[in-house]
Amino acid sequence: MSRGFFITFEGLDGSGKTTQLRRLAATLEAEGRTVVTLRQPGGTALGDRIRSILLDSRSEATFGPIAPAAEMALMFADRAQSIAEIILPAVASGHIVLCDRYTDSSEAYQGGGRQLGSERILEMHRAACDNLQPDLTILLLPPLESSLHRARRRNQRNVQQRGTDENRFERESDDFYRRIYAKYEEIAAREPHRVVAIRDEASIDQIEARIREVVAARLTPVTAS
Ligand code: TMP
Question: Quick check: helix, strand or coil at residue 223?
Answer without folding.
Answer: coil
